[in-house]
Amino acid sequence: MNERNSTFLAMLALAFIFTPGLAAAQQPKVTFSASRAQMVEAPDEVVLGKLPQMSAAEAAVLSQVTPPAQRTPFSPQQYQAMKALAASKPRSSQPSGSTAQIETPSPPSSATPPGISTPSATGFSGLGFGCGFAYPPDMALAVSQQFVLQVINGCVAVWDKTGVLQSGFPKTTNAFFGVLPLSISGGGTIVNNQVFDPRALYDWVNNRFIVISSRCKNSCFSPTNISIIDIAVSKTSDPRGAWNVYHLNLVSLGLLAIGDLADFPTLGQNRAGIYVNFNDFTGLSFNGSVFLFLPKARMYAGSPIGAFNVGSTNTDNVQPANVMNKADNPSSRNCCT
Fold this sequence. Notes:
This protein has 337 residues and is an alpha+beta fold. The protein has helices spanning 3-11, 22-26, 56-62, 76-88, 173-176, 296-300, and strands spanning 16-18, 35-36, 44-47, 140-143, 147-152, 155-160, 171-172, 183-185, 190-192, 194-203, 208-216, 227-234, 242-249, 260-269, 273-282, 285-295, 309-313, 318-320.
């Protein structure tokens, strides 16, 4: 690792929160490395508000997608049973054999502190079934001063903050990211050009929206699959306007092998960059997590990304931090060994 890479990764150390999961428990050895990825070309430009509204035929295609194979030892029914058991236990209950006293928290005061006004709240329904995959929706949400952007598996929509759906929405996520329409065969078991697991946030310092998703160029669990991470950044604070859309072909960049799946992408940002993590699977086998450290200024300007830093670890599901405050400057002198 050269000195420039080492310094860069050290400065970003506190931008990540590592959450060990089941796959990590199976592979406890943690590694961290850095490399330089290949050049990524200039982005496509997409004007979200001018895309065609999602049609009934497109919604019907989306409804045919079946849930992917489970990559955990628990079935959906087991998850539901565990959730029901957790919900049935009172908050003040103690673990078996525990002698510690658990205090019941006092309810918050209803009084408003002097000099602070009580804000009004508006609630409204977002995208639901009939727009996007029937299961699961994998919802992403980003909110600016004026707009609410929601992205789920299959479609994207924009509201103003009073709950008014903007004209022409929802749109398909395939159209948003500028990729070929979704195609289904084999009773929903073979899905090509599948855009899934969206994540979204609003950069309050620069007043830009950022949306990412994972995509399978071929069927996700096919040995010929090519995994792609699509990243869209808005050119203004209005999500209905123009976006720069980048397509990171993880195979051509040398980050994944053909047939691998980039799953469960996560998203964060600070003043220096946009940070993406995803899990790498071959079939049902977990290979580790991959980090992408992307240059925010170049992406906001619509320039080619150029070479960028890449990291890896066997820790499962890594969530980058999202730094909102101009004064925040997380850093570390010592990083990873």
